[in-house]
Amino acid sequence: MVENTTRPLRSRAWFHNSDNIDMTALYLERYLNYGLSLDELRGGKPIIGIAQTGSDLSPCNRHHLVLAERIREGIREAGGIAMEFPVHPIQETGKRPTAGLDRNLAYLGLVELLFGYPLDGVVLTTGCDKTTPALLMAAATVNMPAISLSVGPMLNGNYKGQRTGSGTIVWKARELLATGEIDEVGFIKLVASSAPSTGYCNTMGTASTMNSLAEALGMSLPGSAAIPAPYRDRQEAAYLTGKRIVEMVAEDLKPSDIMTKDAFLNAIAVNSAIGGSTNAPIHLAAIARHVGVELPIDEWQHHGHKIPLLVNLQPAGEYLGEDYYRAGGVPAVVSELMKQGLIAEGAMTVNGRTMGDNCRNAVIEDEEVIRPFERPLLADAGFLVLHGNLFDSALMKTSVISAEFRERYLSDPNDPEAFEGPVVVFDGPEDYHHRIDDPATGIDDTTILVMRGAGPIGYPGAAEVVNMRPPAELIKQGIHALPCLGDGRQSGTSGSPSILNASPEAAAGGNLALLVSGDRVRIDLRQGRVDLLLPDGELAERRAAFDAAGGYAYPGSQTPWQEIQRAVVGQMETGAILEGAEKYQRVAQVHGVPRDNH
Ligand code: FES
Ligand code: MG
């Protein structure tokens, strides 16, 4: 057992307060009632929470129900007492109108649990897209010793001998259905083939991205993020994670010691090299704000854009989660970047060692899946951060621009990085689905598709709807992607080079609200600009008319949380957090423990 020599355990305020024996007895009796002993609660052992995100409602994280047994064994072996409790579930594919609405709700709930109960440290069980940032955000706010454990990806999907990857296969199957190459049953079979086991998306979608970044931030044990959910190594990682958190409590190693500016810059570098999701900037901005680190959106361009794509995973590449793990996972990627001086080696991690010490000797086991730095899949693979007269900022994931797209839009020898075209504007995904195949929209191969009303306020929660397939007629002619632009998000599993996360959104009064179908928009990737081309003064005239008409109309709230979140949520550029929540930092140090409850 690890002795705590540095400071009293937080849980002593509940179980060991001899100045207030009434309350101490009250706290103790109910935790004794299921069989814990006084010795366990009062023997100086740290109480370790297991923040459980798995449930029947959240299949991606459900395997954590099994892993929790091994986490407990690790905690117990190291001399701690485990207390497992549920976190508000967030299932990306199940929650309507969007799981994006629930990240801040889970965050809010977990902050209350970590602060308000007798916990000395916590294991964060992460997985499906928003669960990882929600839990890291809460750990950042409370700032008690915390370690994250990824649930791991599903095994590789396979259909008739071809790898089928989560999400990515859906976009492909939609095209096949639109052109009549498969029917409904064929569609479902093809999509389901990508989900052969427990675990999260096996592509480099938002889940694999965020768990890789949790490891790059230093918040999970080295090498643990990429282990597929059903592998025995995953069980071992759960056990080691449980053991380690007990030591972290003794060492008082906290999120603020680990998630420093250097750690976030490391995560940005890793995100470029793995071909990570466009949701990552939103979530990292949110975590950074809660831990008190400045991370302006332009860091993604300054620090991330020049970094090459090393990891050959769908949607940017070919392979899937099992391949990524066998090729070396995050440590192999970090080690490759380290050799180029692109990693802050001194950043502290949960095992009490630095990122440099953890990854220096990691090697790539399969150079097809993780490429050496000298032989990348693509140079300059990070995001472009775009500005212009339609929004303050938006992002573009350049690593997924197809050869076809490049040829059509980016091959003018006089102006190879810029193009312009007329827009067709959709107000929400229903409008898009209703009209995309209607010839009356006049969409052709020069059209830029615009989606608005899809942001944190408008949707609400920001939906993954900006990647829009072209009309079926154009797909039949071999046009698989049109430029897309919008104030929503897109799935990390999508291979569309959309311009997305536009902030401010139309519903917050952003200029996207002033666009009219037929307007011409110019996209200049070298200058990093997206501009609506209008005669002088016309934008201001439209603004005046728009404001006089009462702003952008969006559907009303359907639940209390939708209304509450809409009233306080910020824009994606700054993490779409609950504005005001960021002023509560290092809560466990500033406030210690809350008042007694009786
Ligand atoms: Fe849960 Fe992709 S849907 S990880
Ligand atoms: Mg998604």
General description of the model:
By secondary structure, the protein is of the alpha/beta class. The chain folds into three domains: 45-156 and 196-360, Rossmann fold (3-Layer(aba) Sandwich); 157-195, no CATH class; 385-549, IlvD/EDD C-terminal domain-like (Glucose Oxidase, domain 1, 3-Layer(bba) Sandwich). 36% of the residues lie in helices and 12% in strands. The chain contains 23 helices and 14 strands. The protein has helices spanning 12-15, 21-32, 38-42, 64-77, 103-116, 131-142, 168-178, 184-192, 206-217, 232-251, 255-258, 261-274, 280-291, 299-304, 321-327, 329-338, 355-359, 403-409, 429-435, 472-476, 538-548, 560-568, 587-590; strands at residues 47-52, 81-86, 121-126, 146-150, 157-159, 162-164, 383-388, 393-397, 418-427, 448-452, 484-486, 499-503, 520-524, 529-533. The strands form three sheets. The chain has an eight-stranded mixed beta sheet with strand order 11-10-9-13-14-7-8-12. Strands 2-1-3-4 form a four-stranded parallel beta sheet, sandwiched between helices. Helix 7 runs antiparallel to helix 8 (184-192) and helix 12 (261-274) crosses helix 16 (329-338). The longest helix is centred in the middle third of the chain and has 20 residues, at 232-251. The radius of gyration is 24 Å and the shape is globular. The mean pLDDT is 95. Bound molecules: FE2/S2 (inorganic) cluster and magnesium ion. FE2/S2 (inorganic) cluster binds next to loops.
